[in-house]
Amino acid sequence: MTTLAADREIESLMALHPKGFDLSLDRISRLLERLGNPQDQLPPVIHIAGTNGKGSCAAFSRALLEAAGYRVHVHTSPHLVNWHERYRLAADGGGRLVDDKVFAEAIARVAKANQGQKITVFEILTAVTFVLFSEYPADAVILEVGLGGRFDATNVIAEPAVSVIMPVSLDHEAYLGDRVELIAAEKAGIIKRGCPVVIGAQESETAQQVLIETAERLDCPAFVYGQDFLAYEENGRMVYQDEDGLMDLPPPRLPGRHQFANAAAAIAAVKAAGFEISHRAAEKAMANVIWPGRMQKLPQGRLGELAPKGADIWLDGGHNPGAGVVVAEALAEQEEKNPRPLFLISGMINTKDQSGYFRAFKGLVRHVYTVPVSTSDAGVPNDELATRAIEAGLSAEPVSSVANALMLLRDTWDGPPPRILIGGSLYLAGAVLAENGTPPV
């Protein structure tokens, strides 16, 4: 793969600054002040936090706004293959990933403004977001939180057009706490006094209560899934309902029933932010939405050619028990409509609850092939991961790579064309897309 100019800039930053997260707003606030506070010069911001579903909400929000003719900047993290995926700049006819030269120049400018002060690479790259988004015209910004909310580097936005809190569950416990109410309180940190809040479908009543109480304390207009808006399936369609009435829409292009709730949160958020979305634009958005690496049908490419003939291959970067549940439910839906034997190829990193993720697939998956995650220092050894899967009640064996797992399945399976899920880590999803020759665009 060709080394891009922006990658070289980021590699030099990695050598200078600590890896990972150091949750505080002091350093990025200081840096942004040196840059002229670009975060205060943005169009209306839709700020999205949550444990699961925030990326999908960002994708639906972008699809809705672009279908309605608005120009939209989008910041998401992490990336799957290239850093550039985190920055989508507004353009007529739909946003484009940032140009490499433009990206590299912005990184160099922000790094210079930092003057060698202690800072994390994520904070520098978040400052790059605000510089880029303030310098190119747009009607809206969709801004996804990196980790948590209260002390995440994106949380320097003083007055978001709307704050969105997607489903909250246990993840990143070392940073955010080991109880769901503590994690909800961290996510609620992006809620700003008097600014609208959309609370997506919550798995935990405790988490929902924390979010509602925070919105009330800060005098925020709050829109809560199940109370103020909702979506449900009817006759193979998606019906969205809020105080303005009903919208009868095609089912979201992103598979899984959980995407109905994610789409509903996005519709509520875009409306709460003050944007007009016609029924026709909402229909177009549901049909066109794209979110790579999340229940994505693997595009035709090098890896797919190694699988059993006629195999149905899905890729998903979900990596915690909550994500395991929604992915398992999406696959169970597919099984009802079109039965096929299901196999799982999984790689995970050591900060995740591996057994909790695997338990969601008990009774659904015939066999698990565990693989190393070569793109992360924190990858769980494939033999250890197989043990976690077996402890969760699954049949499992370690294999050296995704390619070898696909070939092994091709050579040993003599039944009908299988359904295959490659999942358990966004690192793995990114590596698969790169190896397949189909990176996000």
Helix/sheet category:
alpha/beta
- State the end-to-end CA separation: 15 Å
The CATH architecture of the largest domain can be named as 3-Layer(aba) Sandwich
Which term fits the overall shape? globular
* Alpha carbon gyration radius: 21 Å
CATH topology of the largest domain: UDP-N-acetylmuramoyl-L-alanine:D-glutamate ligase
Proportion of residues in extended strands = 15-25%
Largest sheet: 8 strands, mixed
Per CATH, the superfamily of the largest domain is Mur-like, catalytic domain
Helix content: 25-40%
Mean pLDDT: 93
Poorly predicted parts: 172-176
Strand order in the largest sheet: 4-3-2-5-1-6-7-8
How many H/I helices? 15
CATH class of the largest domain: Alpha Beta
Q: Could you tell me the number of beta strands?
A: 17
Number of domains: 2
What can you tell me about this protein's structure?
It is a single chain. The chain folds into two domains: 5-288, UDP-N-acetylmuramoyl-L-alanine:D-glutamate ligase; 296-436, Mur ligase, C-terminal domain (Protein-Tyrosine Phosphatase, Chain A), CATH 3.90.190. The protein contains 15 helices and 17 strands. It has an eight-stranded mixed β-sheet with strand order 4-3-2-5-1-6-7-8, sandwiched between helices. The chain has a six-stranded mixed β-sheet with strand order 12-13-17-14-15-16. Strands 9-10-11 form a three-stranded antiparallel β-sheet, with helices on one face. Helix 13 (382-391) links the parallel strand 15 (367-370) and strand 16. It has helices at 5-16, 26-34, 54-67, 100-114, 121-135, 173-176, 180-187, 205-217, 258-272, 279-288, 321-337, 354-359, 382-391, 402-412, 426-436, and strands at 45-49, 72-75, 87-89, 96-97, 140-144, 162-165, 197-199, 222-224, 229-234, 237-242, 245-249, 296-297, 312-316, 342-346, 367-370, 396-398, 419-423. Mean pLDDT is 93; it is low at 172-176. The longest helix has 17 residues, at 321-337. It has 441 residues and is of the alpha/beta class.
